[in-house]
Design a protein that fits this description.
Layout (H helix, E strand, L loop, with lengths): L1 H10 L3 H4 L19 E5 L4 E5 L6 E16 L1 H7 L22 H6 L4 E5 L3 E5 L28 E4 L10 E17 L5 H17 L9 H23 L5 H27 L8 H6 L2 H15 L5 H4 L2
Parallel strand pairs: 5-6
Antiparallel strand pairs: 1-7, 2-7, 3-4, 3-5, 3-7
Helix pairs in contact: 6-9, 7-9
């Protein structure tokens, strides 16, 4: 028990993720642990073939020990240059192909190609959607769609990969034996890209074998509003605290996502006119805690910003 407590602060989510992450504790009570935080010990000179992780979510990894080289690129470039889509899962499921060898020449040719060098304490964040264009090759660290979808640290390095949809493809080479903790991040920030990512995966599943354990993105929306946004909004309203300008932008994104979900619920109901029962998206939006969370988000946006002179006191 003492040993578990000793490493607990190392293997959990970084503090800056915990209070904002809609998939934090999402798996509690579920048989499938899609969003569990993972702890990995990997020998030197081992590699993880080209792959992307849970679509619609950002992937983060925190290096506790060792040295790692990570190559990343976008889905568009993966399709254009024919890189391997999955890592070697053949030991788990024969449906996947064995990983192909990393092609460094292709990486240099890909506009989205990036290289990251991680040392102890570094955190790498791989986004789930389109990001601002960055220099073509970076070495670190130095310091319209369906809205429901399928679904310090001493340094933090963010991988900005342009034109990426399903997820950031990445290849990982362990230079020196590593201990790494990794997980997923999702909330209303960048929700349009998350939806596109989930939709792309849904279409892919339609062309092949269905993923029986797939999590609908609307389920994450519900969990995030009930477990993250509702408690925070309640506290802000109790204190009469006005949202910061950045927070206001974020709260408006929650409402924008809600609006898109309501449109989708209407479309879902039109497709099922013969069945008067509400669809899954409508049921999600009508959950009491979801409705309360959305109401309180609107109430938070009504609170006026204090005068600048008052802020300085």
């Amino acid at each position: 028990m003492q040993s578990v407590e000793a490493i607990k602060h190392l293997v959990g989510y970084p503090a800056w993720l915990t209070g904002n992450n809609w998939v934090h504790r999402f798996d509690e009570g579920r048989s499938d642990k899609t969003f569990d935080v993972m702890l990995q010990l990997v020998h030197s000179h081992d590699e993880t073939g080209a792959h992307f992780d849970n679509n619609a979510c950002d992937t983060w990894m925190k290096l506790l020990a060792g040295k790692v080289l990570v190559a990343t690129w976008s889905l568009d470039d993966a399709l254009a240059h024919g890189t391997a889509e999955f890592c070697n899962h053949t030991q788990h499921d024969t449906e996947y192909e064995a990983a192909k060898a990393m092609d460094w020449v292709k990486l240099r040719e890909m506009p989205s190609g990036r290289l990251f060098w991680l040392s102890q304490g570094d955190v790498l964040v791989l986004p789930a959607g389109k990001a601002a264009r960055a220099p073509r090759m970076v070495t670190g660290p130095t310091t319209p769609h369906r809205a429901a979808g399928v679904c310090r640290v001493p340094h933090m390095v963010t991988c900005a990969v342009p034109h990426m949809v399903a997820g950031t493809f990445h290849y990982v080479y362990t230079v020196l034996k590593k201990l790494v903790v990794a997980g997923d991040f999702c909330n209303a920030s960048g929700w349009r890209a998350r939806v596109r990512s989930a939709e792309e995966w849904r279409e892919k599943q339609g062309r092949g074998k269905k993923d029986k354990d797939a999590v609908e993105l609307v389920q994450i929306f519900v969990h995030g509003l009930e477990k993250v946004e509702l408690p925070r909004a309640r506290k802000m309203l109790e204190r009469g605290e006005a949202p910061s300008p950045a927070r206001r932008i974020y709260l408006k994104e929650i409402l924008a996502w809600e609006e898109e979900l309501r449109k989708e619920a209407q479309e879902e109901e039109l497709r099922k006119e013969a069945q008067p029962a509400p669809g899954a998206v409508r049921r999600a939006l009508e959950r009491p805690d979801v409705k309360e969370a959305l109401t309180k988000v609107r109430e938070c946006l009504v609170i006026p910003q204090p005068p600048k002179s008052q802020k300085m006191r």
